[in-house]
Amino acid sequence: xxxxxxxxxxxxxxxxxxxxSKAGYDVTIYERRPDxxxxxxSAGKSINLALSTRGWKALDTVGIGDEIRSxxxxxxxxxxxDMESNLTYQPYGKEGQxxxxxxxxxxxxxxxxxxxxxxxxxxxxxxxxxNVDVKAGIVHLKNTITGETSxxxxxxxxxxxxxxxxxxxxxxQKLDRFNFSQNFVEDGYRExxxxxxxxxxxxxxxxxLHIWPRGRxxxxxxxxxxxxxTCTLFMPHENHEKAFDRLNDKAxxxxxxxxxxxxxxxxxxxxxxxWEDHPxxxxxxxxxxxxxxxxxxxxxxxxHATVPFYGQGMNSGFExxxxxxxxxxxxxxxxxxxxxxxxISRKPDGDAVQDLSIHNYxxxxxxxxxPMFLLQKKIEAKFSENHPDKWMPLYSxxxxxxxxxxxxxxxxxxxxxxxxxxxxxxxxKNIWDSKExxxxxxxxx
Length: 445
Ligand SMILES: Cc1cc2nc3c(=O)[nH]c(=O)nc-3n(C[C@H](O)[C@H](O)[C@H](O)COP(=O)(O)OP(=O)(O)OC[C@H]3O[C@@H](n4cnc5c(N)ncnc54)[C@H](O)[C@@H]3O)c2cc1C
What we know:
Bound molecules: flavin-adenine dinucleotide
CATH class of the largest domain: Alpha Beta
CATH superfamily of the largest domain: FAD/NAD(P)-binding domain
Structural class: alpha/beta
Radius of gyration: 23 Å
Strand content: 15-25%
Largest sheet: 7 strands, mixed
Number of domains: 3
Mean pLDDT: 94
Shape: globular
Number of strands: 19
C-alpha cells in the first residue's frame, strides 16, 4: 500500500486523512500539538467558525457531512446591532439558505475520530515536522516533549500545517523560484465568551450571526451548542482612536463596551474581567507559489491563508480536498499530473478568496450599517429573485454555490459597477422595486 504523510491534524489535515484513507492509502498524520480530544487545550485560534456550501460539499463527498450536521447551528442571516440597540435583520440568501456555526475543536475532534475509524489513519501527536526532503518524500520530525528527532518516508506528503506552515517555511522557501508574501492587516482580534443564561438558554437569537458594525471596527457573535456565544472584536492594533492599545486597563475596557456596544454591555457587564481570557491575535494573508514540489503538496492555509472576513478560510481549504479528489478520479495515481493540475487550476481561486476576504472586511466594517448598502442589497435580492439566471448576489456565489472564487470575484466586480449607477437614479429610495429599476439593470447587463 502506498504511504501518505499528512503534516498537521487541523481542520484540513484531518479531513484530507479521511479522503486518503478511503482511497486506500496508508495514512500517517504528524501533529505538533497534543491530542485535543484528551488534552485540555483549545484547537487554536477561533473557537467557532461558519461552515457553508463548499465546506459541506467536501464533507458530503467523503460521506461525513451528516456527522458534522448534527453539531452545526444554522444562521440564516445577519442581525446588526446599532448604537441605539436597534436590530436590523438581513437574510444571507434565499429562504432555506444558511451558513452554519460549528465548533472548531468539536469538528476537528470528530474528524480525527472518523479518520482513525474509517480508514485506519494513524495520528501521531506532539510531533513537529521540522523539514521535508521534497524529492525523496522524507519528513523530518521532532518530538515536542522529549526533543527526540526522527524521520519518516512517504510516497506522498501533504502539508496541512496552517498559515505559518513549517513545511512551506523550511522546505519550499529554500527552493529556486518559490514566490512568497505575508501581509498582516492593521487589525487584530480578541475573542470573548458571552455565557448562556442561567437556565442554559441563549441571550441572543442563535440562528443569526450578530454584528455590531462601528465603522473602523466591529464585534461579531456566533452561537455555540451550549447556549453561549463566541464573540470576536476586530479592530486596529494601534494608531486609531479606537484601537486595542487603548484598551489597556479594566476601566478603559469597561467604558469602551458601555459606550460603544450598549446592548452587549447589558448582557455582559463583567466584560472587563473576561477581557484577558483570550489573547489578542493578528491576521495575515499569505500568498505563495508553487503549491507543489516533488512529492509534496501544500493544502488549506499552508497554501492560501486568508483573513476571516468572508468566513471562507476553512471552506476553501475543504474545497482544496474536493478539487484534489476530483483530480484523483480523473488521473488515478498519476500524482505528477494531479499535482500539476491542482496548483495551476486552484491558485487563481486561492488568490480570489483572499481578495474577496479583504473586500468583505470593508463591507462588514464600513457598510453593513449603511442605509445605501442595505438598499443596494435589497435591489439585488429583488432582481435576483425575478431573474435568477441573470444575477446571483456575490455573497451567494461565494457562500451558497460552488462557482469558482475567481469567477465570483469577476462577476461581483461587474455587478458592483452596475449597482453604483443604479443607486444614482433619482428618487431611488422610493422606486427601488419598480419596473424602471429592473429595466435599467437589464439594460446594463
Ligand atoms: C478568527 C478567525 C476566524 C475564522 N473564521 C472562519 C470561518 O468562520 N469560516 C471559515 O471557513 N474559516 C474561518 N477561519 C479560517 C480557518 O480557521 C482556517 O482557514 C482553517 O483553520 C485552516 O485549516 P488548516 O487545517 O489549513 O490549518 P489549521 O487549522 O491552522 O491547522 C494546522 C494544523 O497543523 C499543525 N501544525 C502546524 N505546524 C506544524 C508542524 N510543523 N508540524 C506538525 N503539525 C503542525 C497545527 O498544530 C494545526 O493542528 C477563521 C480564522 C480565524 C483566525
